[in-house]
Amino acid sequence: MPTSRPVGLAFLRRNHWLPARQPSPASFSVSLGQHLAFTLACAAVLMALYSLLRLALLLYNGEQIGTASATILAEAFFNGLRFDLRLVVYVCAPLLLAVASRRAMRVRALLRTWLTLFASLTLFLGVLELDFYHEFHQRLNGLVFQYLKEDPQTVLSMLWHGFPVLRYLFAWLLATLSLGWLFGRLDRLTRSPAVAGREAGSRWPFRALAFSICLALALLAVRGTLRQGPPLRWGDAFTTDSMFANRLGLNGSLTLLDAAHSQLSDQREHLWKATLASGEARQTVRQMLLTNADRLVDEGSAAVRRDYSPPLGGTLPARNVVVILMESFAGHYVGALGAPGGITPNFDRLAQEGLLFTRFFSNGTHTHQGMFATMACFPNLPGFEYLMQTPEGGHRFSGLPQLLGARGYDSLYVYNGDFAWDNQSGFFGSQGMRNFIGRDDFVDPVFSDPTWGVSDQDMFERAAQELERRSEAGQPFYALLQTLSNHTPYALPEHLPVAPVSGFGELDQRLTAMRYADWALGRFFERASHSPYFKDTLFVVVGDHGFGSREQLTEMDLLRFNVPLLLIGPGVQEKFGARRDIVGTQLDIVPTIMGRLGGAVRHQCWGRDLLDQPAGSPGFGVIKPSGGDQTVALVSGDRVLVQPPGLAAKLYRYRLGSDPASQPLAAAPDEAVLKRQLSAFLQAATASLLEDSAGMDDGEPAR
């Protein structure tokens, strides 16, 4: 007695939830017209899918819409169709190639499987991108690969504890099954039983003509434009004044594909391309950085190596230095810089005791860039965004470890997390730091985040103990203290010592973590102020980077870079006042510290002593986001020049504080000068890094 087919499988195949068993080629036929109809129908499904993903991205990040009108958003969706069509051509390429063979046109099961798998993959990326954009205000890019290269356990823990992973996976699986069913349905609607003579229209002359037409149309769709010159580029989506709408017009799968290509290509392809003669670039950057207190040395072999003699009137009676790098401490939410909501009451109180810089910026948008810019005073450059993990990161920079190590200072680095992340121990160890206290060195912490490490409260408590111990030893010291609690998944102690933040919508959780970090900072200073070393110590409090907000002022997300810089030390306010509006970045921290300690010093920092500049100087800073985004900008005074790759530079006047805004400036008389300064700075710094002449010379630094 023959065995009947299982009822369950029959039901699933009958309803197209599973691919039907592939009939023999003789059991059904596919004419050329039917195959083209199947291809067009599947392409339409994919186009609809990617438009729905764009709509989901819009709704999920709706707070980014700002003042963008419905017309602008419609333009973004129209621009997106061009990028989506390019991706659809890639997906449908096997179907288009099948036109050349009648046998290939009949292999529907294989074609449906390919379509379902590819659609499922891009759907998964679309779901992932909802929170990726929410966090970074960028479409999928090289940051994805960077996180994958880090400790997988930490990354998976961050995702599991920070996002509704199971809910996303269930939705993705359900949508994948639906897509499989839909492609199966289209398959059945576009084929028929084999009948003699039915495939007359599929003979080779017709197929050859159809294949030629399909190939031409596919190439046109992939180019995305009828213009001469380069094909469709990301800049073609930037057609409005809304940065969110412009990025909405891109396709995340394509931007990730571009990032993958960049990851596999030679690093030198991403370096800043020289546009000036090397001598002109060096001379320009020297004019930007050097003052009357600097004397250039090694002029022929180093770009900006100099002996700096700080004016005696600008020094402070400080013996020790403590740098506090605050995770995601966005200036846009700091009360002392004009933000409402009382997010940072302790920092605001401390700002009344020290010197606050109101136009200060991070050099990048990730912590590791804040680390090497702040401590090694070297910029975040195109092609070297992950400097601490590259061979060039082993160069001997003229940062705080070298300069103070040469003066006999003891060193200390206290951090909530694992020093293996971002190669911190390797980088800072090679620069001269010797004493590291990380997550495995804390005993009985108040709270330990399963993803990153101990709480900010624990970090500051241990740091206070270590600083007191070093003070008793009598040796001068410098320390780097780094917070971590204000980071996805924002795991905080169960019994919070602060009231949770409310009224900021999706930012409530993040701002609660920022308020908690601020509380821990205040608690540290309360203890430190009663310690003997306090009166002899210069404290530098700075954000490692900011985070995205609803206002995105230019193509460069300027508020993501805006962080506070606060100096607290003996006699700071008496000599320098309570606030400074000069523009600065993390590159300026080391020269500013050395200027307060006094004594001649030889260095090659790519920043300046912010407290030894001519009156009325607007200051300047060069900034660049992390990941594969090669956009760069020069901030000077209340203006910012933004240079996207391959597009014309734009100059804006900006305003920070409680009511941030920007205004495009046309035909500014010094725009050409700003462009030359930006290019010269990046070109000279890149050349110095490649030549290994970006830091100290072979001799001891001058004292």
UniProtKB/TrEMBL annotation:
Name by which UniProt lists this protein: LTA synthase family protein
Residues at which Mn(2+) binds: 327, 367, 544-545
TM region positions: 36-60, 109-128, 165-183, 204-222
Organism superkingdom: Bacteria
Location of the Sulfatase N-terminal domain: 319-598
Residues at the active site: 367
Keyword hit for Lyase: no
Organism: Azotobacter chroococcum
UniProt entry keywords in alphabetical sequence: Cell membrane, Manganese, Membrane, Metal-binding, Transmembrane, Transmembrane helix
Membrane topology: Multi-pass membrane protein
Main location: membrane
Location relative to the cell: Cell membrane
A single MF term (Gene Ontology): metal ion binding
